[in-house]
Amino acid sequence: MCQRIIFHVDVNSAFLSWTAAYRVRVLGEKTDLREVPSVIAGNKDSRHGIVLAKSTPAKKFHIQTGEPLYQALEKCPELLVAQPDYGLYVEASRHFVEMLRRFSPCVEQYSIDEAWADMTGTQRLYGDPRTAAEQLRSRIWEELGFTVNIGISTNKLLAKMAGDLEKPNKVITLFPEEIPGKMWPLPVRELFMVGSATERKLSRMGIYSIGDLANADLQLLKRRLGKQGELIWHYANGRNGDLVIAEPVENKGYGNSVTTSADVVSEEAALQVLLSLCETVGMRMRKDGKCGKCVTVSLRTNDFSNFSHQKTLHGATNVTQTLFEAARDIFREAWDGCTPLRQLGVQVTGLTEEPYQQYDLFQNPVTYEKKLRLGETVDALRDKFGENVICRAKFAKNPESHMAGGLDKTRRTGVTKPVPKEF
Question: pTM above the 0.85 mark?
Answer without folding.
Answer: no
